[in-house]
Design brief:
Elements lengths: L2 H11 L3 H13 L2 H8 L10 E4 L9 H18 L4 E6 L5 H14 L3 E4 L6 H10 L4 E5 L8 E7 L8 H12 L12 H7 L2 E3 L3 H12 L13 E5 L5 H11 L4 E4 L21 H14 L3 E5 L6 E7 L2 E5 L1 H19 L7 E5 L5 H9 L2 E5 L3 H13 L6 E6 L3 E3 L9 H16 L5 H12 L1 E10 L2 H17 L4 E2 L2 E2 L2 E4 L13 E4 L5 E6 L5 E10 L2 H18 L3
Parallel strand pairs: 2-3, 2-4, 3-6, 7-8, 7-9, 12-13, 12-14
Antiparallel strand pairs: 1-5, 4-5, 9-10, 10-11, 14-15, 16-22, 17-18, 19-20, 20-21, 21-22
Helix pairs in contact: 4-5, 4-7, 9-10, 10-15, 12-13, 12-16
Length: 561
């Protein structure tokens, strides 16, 4: 069907009042580029499920694309489970409740029991609930830290991990056969509740989740009673409920929540990009810190799987990077476990190919190993599953990725800002006892191991033309890799499209430079961007930062269409 025919069919068949009105306005605007972007393709269903801008069209998040996806998921589940059930959660994003109710009704109409959290809850709680309730799958309505105009549909397997590539491919194939208007089976949400096909997840699940978080506690016994003053912001998302309960249970009672970002709000009025990696999102918290002078600022993103930290550093507040927090957590956890005699000689920490190589030096110091995975926390979760299948979960120390995702326990199979926030608070108490904050602590590690610096740059290529440009850039880098980058010879090229050291094939290329420096380039799996990950190391901070600047300029040139 041509794009024009698809637009005409949607105009005739889309009866949802909001979508119908938006589509009518879009067609009437005469904006051919905007119309093409909304309809030039079906919203892609990958291993992260769906994610896109809200609005009318096949390439948008709306009740029809959500319905089409859910019918495909239902068909997949019925083919693999005799009596499938799905646990469903949502964050604070716009249309999240609508999409949950739409999804639950379609699943129920297909004979799949839907278990719903009665209010917004974090991603790690859903990951836990899937396994705790013995569900066949999980679904979360979230676009993580994307801007307010986005929402998403993330699918989890029965193991609590984001679905595997094979499952995603099978679900995607099932979705491709579904007509969004005639191929979706649904019914009355309220009727299905009465019939018991839709039910609510009891708060006892959250109690068990928090119990499991506390079981992974690693407080320094000599600093556990050190008073900690904290400013926290959930960035108008889901983190407040469970983090508040966790703070109380570990004895951190001096907590001030940023008032403008306390309540759930899918418009994210104070931070158009609700990502704790970005200073703009943290600014309200920093302003409050200037008044209250806490020991640290904690921020969780809308679905509370990521956590960011800022600490006083001279006259300003410094945001610790995701790599720096991973470094600090790995060092602290190993230190505490070694002191308790629970750090096994065959212990492992898990991270991704784009995360800092400084963790290799720390791992060597403690005599443990690092396992590297592709980008995406599902791969870290799969390592946990593999350890569980062998009865070796006590080998696991930490999983983390550079984009502010950490999993310090074994009861969750995804990023867990609740458990990570607990460890961060305990780590802050440990260093406060020594007269240090976390900025001081990372500086001490740099002085011990060398200045490993990392930077990620992203170049956006929106719309249909952007998608074509990204494909051309990646094709060029795979087929014609540079001989040098910024005057530094490329000593080796690792093309993950061909597979590498047992990892799945991926559209990623790595350029290895002398002295562990390197550049890795990959397209984002959730946004229309190409990312370059830069790695620089030097004995002095200024030299490492200068090298990063040089590598950034060269990488930006490589990413030009």
């Amino acid at each position: 069907m041509s794009m024009q025919s698809t637009v005409e069919r949607w105009t005739a068949r889309a009866t949802d009042p909001e979508i119908a009105a938006q589509l009518s306005a879009l067609v009437a605007s005469g904006d051919a580029s905007a119309l093409e972007d909304a309809f030039f393709q079906d919203l892609s269903f990958g291993t992260a499920g769906l994610r896109g801008v809200l609005g009318p069209g096949t390439n948008r998040m709306n009740v029809y694309t959500v319905g089409k996806a859910t019918q495909g998921v239902a068909d997949y589940l019925k083919a693999h489970f005799e009596h499938p059930t799905v646990a469903i959660a949502r964050d604070s994003r716009n249309n999240g409740e609508l999409f949950v109710r739409t999804t639950a009704a379609i699943l129920a109409a297909n004979g799949v029991r839907a278990l719903l959290f009665p209010r917004i809850e974090p991603v790690p709680a859903l990951s836990f609930a899937v396994r705790d309730l013995g569900a066949s799958a999980g679904i979360v309505m979230t676009a993580s830290h994307n801007p307010a105009e986005y929402n998403g549909y993330k699918v989890y397997g029965a193991d609590g991990c984001q679905i595997t590539s094979d499952a995603a491919d099978e679900i995607s194939a099932a979705i491709s056969t579904v007509d969004p208007f005639d191929g979706v089976v649904s019914g009355s949400f309220d009727d299905f509740v009465d019939q018991g096909l839709i039910s609510w997840i009891d708060d006892a699940v959250l109690d068990r989740f928090l119990d499991a978080e506390l079981a992974a506690s690693l407080a320094d016994p000599e600093a556990a009673d050190e008073p900690l003053k904290l400013v926290y912001t959930p960035l108008n998302g889901t983190g407040l409920e469970l983090n508040s309960r966790m703070f109380e249970r570990i004895g951190v009672t001096d907590v001030t929540v940023v008032p403008e970002q306390r309540d759930p709000d899918g418009n994210f009025p104070t931070c158009p990009y609700p990502n704790p990696e970005i200073r703009e999102a943290m600014q309200k918290g920093i302003e409050l810190c200037e008044q209250l002078h806490p020991d640290l600022l904690l921020a969780t993103d809308p679905d509370a799987d990521r956590v960011g930290v800022a600490c006083k550093d001279g006259d300003d507040y410094t945001l610790l990077t995701g790599n720096e927090m991973g470094i600090l957590m790995l060092d602290y956890i190993c230190k505490m476990r070694a002191a308790r005699g629970t750090l096994r000689s065959d212990a492992i920490a898990v991270s991704t190919i784009v995360s800092t190589v400084m963790i290799d030096a720390i791992a060597a110091h403690y005599g443990i190993s690092i396992v590297r995975t592709l980008t995406g926390f599902k791969y870290i979760g799969n390592v946990l599953n593999d350890l569980a299948s062998k009865g070796e979960l006590n080998r696991y120390v930490l999983g983390f990725e550079e984009s502010y995702g950490y999993c310090p326990g074994t009861h969750v199979r995804d990023k867990d800002s609740i458990g990570a926030s607990m460890i961060i608070c305990q780590m802050a108490q440990h260093y406060k006892k020594q007269g240090m904050n976390l900025v001081d602590a990372i500086e001490a590690l740099y002085q011990r191991y060398g200045y490993y610096r990392n930077r990620t740059i992203s170049i956006a290529y929106p719309g249909a033309d952007g998608a074509r440009s990204m494909a051309k850039i990646m094709d060029r880098l795979h087929s014609q890799p540079p001989a040098d980058i910024a005057g530094h010879p490329v000593e080796a090229v690792v093309d993950y499209a061909n597979g590498y050291k047992g990892l799945p094939k991926a559209n990623v290329v790595e350029f290895q430079l002398p002295d562990t420096n390197k550049v890795i380039i990959r397209p984002s799996g959730t946004e229309p961007k190409i990312k370059a990950y830069l790695f620089a190391k030097a004995p002095a901070e200024a030299d490492a930062d200068a090298l990063l600047d040089v590598l950034e300029a060269a990488a930006r040139s490589l990413l030009q269409a």
